[in-house]
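Input (Triosephosphate isomerase):
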Amino acid sequence: MNKTLRQAIIAGNWKMNKNRAEAKELIEAMKPLVADANCGVVICVPFTNLETAMELTEGTNIKVGAENVHFEKSGAFTGEISADMLTEMGVEYVVIGHSERRQYFGETDHTVNLRTKAAVEAGLKPIVCVGEMLEDRENGITAELVAMQVKLALKDITKEQLKNIVIAYEPVWAIGTGKTATADQAAEVCGLIRETVASIYDKEAADAMTIQYGGSMNPKNAAELLGKEDIDGGLIGGASLKAPDFAAIVEAATKG
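Output:
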């Protein structure tokens, strides 16, 4: 992390977990544990928990995010939620292009770009996910693939809009598998992402961008990962569902 240049952000991605009662219990347990954080703290929750999360985090340092957003403002898109619907609720962040959305629901680099543009135009702060499959890494094309994903995700995004975008590097082979990229592997790709952003915009824009690591960060490895210059936080999956574990990662970011 380099907090003199950019904000460190720890964001929990709850995925399809927690009913409203369970969400309330988790948030109430989490609030006092992260109250003194000097990094950004975000919880990205299922649509059914957004109202609960907004109500319970009001007046705290915890920001609320959604896990997906559609790129159209309205229309015949059954089951989808627009960016304006989220901002009207007071939601601040949204995860876009998570590998599970790409793998199971047909998300593409093109739709990631459309969703990212819709989100920033509505005033949301997208957490845009990029990352390689295990076969991509084994074939030595991680750098090319991730750079391409970043370039396509940011197509037609202005430098001013870029200020509200976070990129999360999530090696797909390290999500929910218990495997984690080494700190050096994670730092190398996060550095590549920053170089790619600099090539599209400039060094100033790249230096100001928050780049998270999103592959099974946990209390045991958080300090080492966050000790790397180009890793500015984490997009946390399983560990975000346990208040003490999430708080421990936030503490690592606070101390780093």
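Residues 9-37+47-71+81-230 form a domain with the TIM Barrel fold (CATH 3.20.20.70).
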